[in-house]
Amino acid sequence: MLDVLEIMKRIPHRYPFLLVDKVLEMDKETKTARGIKNVTINEEFFQGHFPGHPIMPGVLIIESMAQCLGVLVMDGLEGEKLPYFAAIESAKFKRPVRPGDRLEYEVSVEKQKLNIVKAHGTAKVDGELACEATFTFCIADK
Q: pTM of this prediction?
């Protein structure tokens, strides 16, 4: 299990854009990870998305899954590297995410060739699918 301080050692994201609070499991052998984000009304994006009806923007749910995946893939890499999105495919949003929800991520690497990673992720709230997507990203020097 990794807390937020350990997460920040592995990926470059910082407040207000660090969207993973904890990594519950990480298995380098099966290339899978599970993490969480506790969604609170204090998140800056809720000021404008949407007043009187706060929901987490879908693009941030995608980003948060990718950050969880980044913790897995970036762990142990030598030198200063950054993960960059190359593609987001088959993104589906099934339910809104609201303040008070706990997003639970499950991510897995489907294929990795050199510095290109293809992966899949889901985000659930109380066991109910909120979002899923397939990602491709490139790991490049900083």
A: 0.94
Q: What is the pLDDT of residues 103-125, one digit of tens each?
A: 999 999 999 999 999 999 999 99
Give the SS3 label for residue 19: coil
Question: Phi and psi dihedrals of 21, rounded to 5?
Answer: -90, -30
Q: Which one of 13, 49, 53, 120 is the catalytic residue? A: 49
Residue 13 appears among annotated catalytic residues: no
**Which domains are seen in the chain, by residue range?**
4-141 (3.10.129.10)
What number of other Cβ atoms are within 10 A of residue 31's Cβ? 18
Give the number of other Cβ atoms within 10 Å of residue 109's Cβ.
18
